[in-house]
Amino acid sequence: MADLAKEYYRSRTDAIIERFGPGPRVHFHNGYIEKPGVPPEATLDELRDSMNAFQEKMLKFATDHWRSFADLSGRVLDAGCGLGGTSIWLAQNFGADVTSVTNVAEHIPLINTFAAQAEVAELVHPHCSDIHTFAADPGRYDAVVALEASCFFDRHRWFSMLSSMLRPGGHVLIEDVFLGAEPGWKNTFDATHHTDVGSVEEYHQAADAAGFRFIGGIDISSHMADFADWTIAWNALRATQPGADTEGLKRAIEAQRALQRVTGREVDGIRGQLLAYELAAPSL
Ligand SMILES: C[S@@+](CC[C@H](N)C(=O)[O-])C[C@H]1O[C@@H](n2cnc3c(N)ncnc32)[C@H](O)[C@@H]1O
Known about the structure:
The structure is a single chain. The chain is of the alpha/beta class and about 280 residues long. The protein has helices at about 1-10, 15-20, 45-65, 85-95, 105-115, 155-165, 185-195, 200-210, 220-225, 225-240, 245-260; strands spanning about 75-80, 95-100, 125-130, 140-145, 165-180, 210-220, 270-280. Helix 3 runs antiparallel to helix 10 (about 225-240), helix 6 (about 155-165) packs across helix 8 (about 200-210) and helix 10 runs antiparallel to helix 11 (about 245-260). The protein is globular. The relative contact order is 0.16. S-adenosylmethionine binds near residues 2, 29, 85, 130 and 131.
């Protein structure tokens, strides 16, 4: 599963930048949509700019919530950082010193370039590693953020390693997809996205076993599902243009439509959530 995900993201780099770029803050997570509806006449550039704005609205919604209890201005680990969009956002907005971990070696120079363009190169430190074998000094981080990346991880291993890297009272802050009331959709979703989507209960168990306390969650499914309308519109328009991988784009549209149906529109199969955990202080 890990190798498939790595190869998927490595091979999709150009397509991701074409759809969600041009940078310097390139995100590949869902957007936060308040009002559904894609303008029928929108151009590719307009669709891309809107998607970037919705993705940043998701980041703003999440970080506004997290900052009410967590320190995002200290040392932060961005686990499964993609092209560093979240890392650069945290550095620019809060002065965070961010370690950005990705398992795709080809993404490291791109993150460095984007961070330099955003004038936060001294605050963003990309590192290539599988997250499960990433090592850091004990208590190094104030917070760990993971935007739509923990669905790829082994949660028990991940929380266990985080318990030594975070300082006591440090936070794990997650935005991701989780199994809904009809978990039969797991296999379909995982096969499409190379993930290992878990239930919220599974996260709670992994966190609890590693010494974390659950401190709150917000269901964001209704804001997330409509984002696929935009990616479908972008893919459909791109498919009509010269040089398009028409068959690949058609397959992507089908997968996005299927996902929309199970992300609450028709079936409670997959939910979007923010989850937050705090590392317990050692007892005296
Ligand atoms: C959906 S993307 C999200 C990227 C980024 N967090 C964002 O929101 O833009 C998932 C990311 O997780 C990374 N990833 C998946 N499995 C990983 C692993 N085992 N170790 C490190 N990174 C991993 C992928 O390379 C990819 O960058």
